């Protein structure tokens, strides 16, 4: 039983380490696949982490358009969506059934919708149409939708807000956003949780809905004449227009990676404490085991074994115990990832690669070895007859 508890105590933090690595890799892969659909760049207020936190003047559009190498400049408005059909993020979070469930509470946060107001005429000339290319029902926005309360929503949003018959919203149905009634003209499905909570509409209507000034924009979507000149054009825009950052999708991915690294580092500190507890468990297990076998070690010493031989034996046993804990932790991680993938949506997939498994096994062996050093040292320091007498008590 003592050995089993030691195995479990070390395997749990191994599961934590592998789980964090797997989740981080899954998020990075999802972001890479999502942003890979976009060929342009976004011009944001300097140091703004995302479009929803950026505010710029509309007259900057002409300055950006005059930068050599720029093919297209389209103004966009990004804001958190008002309550949809009377339901807001705050209301979801304060529902008793959501508050008592961590999973539902987290899902409510992930399901927070955002409004994207587009300059329709300019966006129709874009090479990249993430939403227009992902239409599953109806159509995308056209010039006839300018200044009209019409919206394109995701299949996920349609399924979350049901009609009077209890069925998902369809093309032609109305959708109340804030204080305005919108007609659904299209339903898209990008397959990415990063894109599938966006309400796409005309930029003028978005300003009215959100109460923004006529000349206010969040960012500009920019395409270069040649995709291979994206970096040069971005630097030229930043030089020509002070106070902005021109970020291509690769830079967004790098920024996200930095954020994920900081989060992982913080979580790894917590996991490190669990690893320390696991090592203490191994120390206790091996210490009790060696104390019960003092007579055995004494006999081995009288038959020619050196202190070094005893030290090697106990350390090897401890390392094997760590390896067994690592195998158990890896199996639990693989099983948990397989179960989680059945419930995860939006393109997020958890998987433990051979490299991650090797890291988990290696870490467990190292922790097991460290946990056995003190018991091995203590057993090896006893004189043969002293060890036999201690074991006979």
From TrEMBL:
Transmembrane segments: 267-289, 310-337, 357-377
EC number of the protein: 3.6.3.-
Domain of life: Bacteria
GO cellular component terms attached to this protein's record: plasma membrane
GO molecular function: ATP binding; hydrolase activity; transmembrane transporter activity
Database matches in InterPro entries: ABC3_permease_C, MacB_PCD, Macrolide_Exporter_MacB
Domain ABC3 transporter permease C-terminal: 269-383
Keyword list, A-Z: ATP-binding, Cell membrane, Hydrolase, Membrane, Nucleotide-binding, Transmembrane, Transmembrane helix
Methyltransferase keyword on record: no
Major localization listed first in the record, in broad terms: membrane
Signal peptide residues on this chain, from the entry's feature table: none
Family of the protein in this entry: Belongs to the ABC-4 integral membrane protein family.
Protein name as it appears in the record: Macrolide export ATP-binding/permease protein MacB
């Amino acid at each position: 039983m003592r050995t089993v508890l030691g195995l479990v105590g070390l395997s749990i933090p191994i599961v934590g380490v592998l789980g964090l690595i797997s989740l981080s890799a899954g998020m990075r892969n999802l972001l890479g696949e999502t942003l890979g659909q976009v060929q342009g760049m976004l011009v944001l207020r300097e140091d703004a982490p995302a479009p929803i936190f950026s505010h710029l003047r509309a007259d900057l559009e002409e300055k950006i358009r005059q930068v050599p190498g720029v093919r297209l400049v389209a103004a966009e408005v990004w804001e958190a969506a008002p309550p949809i059909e009377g339901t807001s993020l705050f209301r979801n979070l304060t529902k008793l059934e959501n508050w008592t469930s961590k999973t539902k509470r987290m899902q409510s946060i992930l399901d927070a919708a955002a409004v994207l107001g587009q300059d329709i005429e300019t966006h129709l000339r874009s090479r990249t149409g993430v939403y227009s290319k992902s239409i599953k029902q109806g159509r995308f926005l056209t010039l006839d939708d300018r200044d009209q309360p019409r919206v394109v929503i995701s299949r996920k949003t349609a399924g979350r807000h049901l009609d009077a018959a209890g069925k998902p919203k369809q093309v032609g149905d109305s959708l109340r956003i804030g204080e305005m009634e919108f007609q659904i003209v299209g339903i898209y499905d990008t397959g990415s949780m990063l894109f599938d909570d966006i309400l796409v509409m005309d930029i003028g209507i978005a300003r009215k809905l959100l109460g923004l000034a006529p000349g206010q924009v969040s960012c500009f979507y920019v395409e270069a004449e040649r995709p291979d000149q994206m970096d040069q054009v971005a630097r030229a825009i930043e030089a020509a227009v002070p106070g902005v950052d021109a970020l291509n999708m690769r830079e967004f991915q790098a920024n996200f990676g930095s954020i994920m690294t900081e989060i992982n580092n913080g979580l790894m500190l917590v996991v490190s404490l669990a690893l320390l507890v696991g090592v203490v468990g191994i120390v206790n297990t091996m210490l009790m085991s060696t104390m019960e076998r003092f007579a055995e070690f004494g006999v081995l010493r009288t038959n020619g074994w050196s202190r070094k031989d005893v030290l090697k034996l106990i350390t090897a046993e401890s390392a094997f115990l760590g390896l067994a804990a690592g195998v158990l932790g890896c199996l639990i991680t693989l099983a948990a990832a397989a179960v989680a993938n059945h419930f995860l949506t939006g393109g997020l997939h958890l998987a433990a690669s051979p490299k991650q498994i090797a890291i988990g096994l290696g870490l467990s062996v190292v922790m097991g070895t460290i946990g056995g050093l003190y018991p091995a040292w203590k057993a090896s320091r006893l004189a043969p007859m002293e060890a036999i007498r201690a074991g006979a008590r």
